[in-house]
Amino acid sequence: MKNKMLLPGLLLLLLFSFSINPAWAAEYTVTRGDSLWTIAQKNNTSVAKLMEINNLKSDFLTIGQVLKLDNKVPSPTNQSNNYTPGNVYLIQAGDTLSGIAQRFGLTVESIRRLNNIQGDMIYAGQKLLLNSGGSVSRGSVERPGITEMPESGDSSRYGRLVDWFSEGKNLLKPGMKFNATDIQTGKTIQLAVLSSGNHCDVEPLTQEDTNTMLSLFKEWTWTPRPVCIQVGGQAIAASLSGMPHTNIENITGNGVTGHFDMYLFNSEPHGSGISKSYVQQHHDAVQMAAK
C-alpha cells in the first residue's frame, strides 16, 4: 500500500499543524475510521458536496487520501500554484498521468518509476514527484532488494521488535530527536520525527547527518537499511529508507529537501499506491535489525 494510486498521502495531515501552504487549508487527509459522513460532519459540509468536488463515484475511501473541502482549486494555467521548486506537482481535478507528462516534457513511465506506481489511477490533492532534477529526484529510484547486509555483527547495534501501532507511535512523537545506528557500519545519524502516521517520517537533524546518510546509501535510493534507534532508553529495530521525498519538512539547513520513510515492526505505508515489494523490504530490514 492494491488500489493502484500514487505515492502515499505523504503527510498532508501535517499541513494543518505546520502551515506549509495556506492554499491547502481546505483539505482533509483520510485516517482510519473515517467515512464521508463523519468527515462532512467535522467540516460543516455535506456528503453530496464532498462527492461532487472530489469527483467521487462512491463513498469508498482509502487511508491517506486527500479530500478537498471546497471547490476552490488553483487555476490550471498557473503552474506556480501546483508546481513547487522541489519538483513536486499537486494533482488537480481532471489531471491524467499522460497530460502531466506532456506538460513537463516527461514520459508516463518515468513518472510511474519515480513514484513507484503502476497503472494510471490518480486523484486530486495527491503530490506527484517529477523526474526533472532537484533534490527530490537525486540518485536511483529503483527499489531492489536489500544487499550487502552483514550475516553477523556487533550485537549492541541491534534492537527489539516494537509494534508501531500499539507502542511505537506513542514513543516517536513529532519533533522528537533520536539517534539511529546503521547495523552494517555502526555509523550513527541524528534524526527528528516529522510525523507519526502509518509509519514514521523523519529528517536528518544537521548537514553532517545528511552527509552520513548519503555515505551509507551511496546515492539517494528507496532501498532501506536496517538500523537500531535509541528512544526512551530502549534499543528498537527499525528500517530507514534513503530517498528524500516531497518538499514537506520541518528542518531547514540540513542539506536536503523533504523527509525519509522509517518503519518499525508492523508499520504500513501512508496510502494505497506503494508497491508491496517496497513495504516488504522495510519489514525484512526491521527483522535484520532485531536481536
Domain module tally: 2
Q: Structural class of the secondary structure composition?
A: alpha+beta
Q: Cα-atom Rg, whole angstroms? A: 19 Å
Runs in which pLDDT lies below 50 for 5 or more consecutive residues are: 1-25, 73-86, 132-155
Question: Approximately how much helix is present in the residues?
Answer: 10-25%
Strand order, sheet with most strands: 5-6-7-10-9-8
> What can be said about the biggest beta sheet?
6 strands, antiparallel, barrel
Question: What's the layout of helices and strands?
Answer:
Layout: H1 15-18, E1 27-29, H2 36-42, H3 47-53, E2 66-68, E3 88-90, H4 97-103, H5 108-115, E4 127-129, H6 164-171, E5 177-182, E6 188-196, E7 200-204, H7 207-217, E8 221-231, E9 234-242, E10 260-263, H8 276-288
Antiparallel strand pairs: 1-2, 3-4, 5-6, 5-8, 6-7, 7-10, 8-9, 9-10
Keywords:
8 helices, 22% helix, alpha+beta, disordered N terminus, 291 residues, 10 strands, 6-stranded antiparallel β-barrel, single chain, LysM_dom_sf, Membrane-bound Lytic Murein Transglycosylase D, Chain A, LysM, LysM repeat protein
